[in-house]
Specification:
The chain is about 10% helix and about 40% strand. The protein starts with about 20 loop residues before the first helix and ends in a 12-residue tail after the last strand. It has a domain of about 90 residues: Sandwich (Immunoglobulin-like). It is flat. With about 160 residues, the chain is mostly beta strands. The strands form two sheets. It has a four-stranded antiparallel beta sheet with strand order 1-6-5-4, with no helix packed on it.
């Protein structure tokens, strides 16, 4: 991909945008880059809708989802698996403000966060283990064992 910037004399009638590639061309080139191959590979789809940071990994027995929920109590977190989609929601209530305090800055976050994760076919969502430790929610969703090929006898 090459870019060309050409100097034109003042008063030239050649539009400046003709020297730049189209946005569609740039986007296409970007997505065809090998760096993004993993995102295009088949696996659990993590929606970008939501504001909850997650890591999704797997081992031989389970799909592992880790979500950052610092300051949340387990009572403020809701986890559901429905129709192949894992939904994680957290709602954090605002602490009451002290009457004799004047804030110079308020940056701590209150409100709700959520994330939807499409589960692969190998995960049914029937066996889910959840642990909240040090602000990280860890979910382990058991995988179904792969069907082994079986030999069929011909009569």
């Amino acid at each position: 991909m090459t870019f060309g910037i050409t100097r034109r004399p003042i008063g030239s009638t050649v539009p400046a945008l003709t020297t730049f590639p189209s946005v569609a061309s740039l986007f296409s080139d970007l997505l065809s880059d090998p760096f993004f191959a993993e995102a295009r590979a088949q696996g659990p789809a993590v929606s970008t809708a939501g504001t909850l940071a997650v890591d999704v990994s797997e081992d031989d027995q389970s799909l592992i989802v880790r979500a950052s929920l610092p300051g949340y109590k387990k009572e403020e977190i809701d986890v559901e698996v429905n129709d192949g989609v894992l939904a994680i929601k957290g709602e954090h209530a605002e602490e009451t403000e002290e009457k004799n305090e004047r804030y110079h800055r308020r940056e701590r976050r209150f409100g709700s966060v959520s994330r939807l994760i499409s589960l692969p076919d190998t995960v049914t969502g029937e066996d889910v283990k959840a642990e909240l430790k040090d602000g990280v929610l860890t979910l382990r969703l058991a995988k179904t064992p792969k069907e082994q090929p079986r030999k069929v006898q011909i009569a």
